[in-house]
Design a protein that fits this description.
126 residues, mainly beta, 48% strand
Length: 126
Amino acid sequence: QVQLVESGGGLAQAGGSLRLSCVASGFTFNLYNMGWFRQAPGKEREFVASISPGGRSTYYRDSVEGRFTISRDNANNRLSLQMNSLKPGDTAVYYCAADRAVWSVRSMNASRYDYWGQGTRVTVSS
């Protein structure tokens, strides 16, 4: 049974930091591209960051580049997202997802992803 369980969300002030984690089980984690997506109230789900199976390649959406860092620990089936310099516009439910396709810039596309977590809510106050 595949599971992706996110944690680490909560309330932060603008300029603050949060670290999200996602623990995976039920599939071979180190064979999958992993991604973080988010969905703000009333908006569509959007790409945040992705990382290749070995962790050497990453993509970020422009608005988080330089503030967020995606990383993975394949030994412990864990995906992380370090979020610094948070802004109110980062408020959303954050989801981790797993994609078995060949690593490419298309990892930004949510439709590629096979498995999704339930999400963790991040609220940034001004």
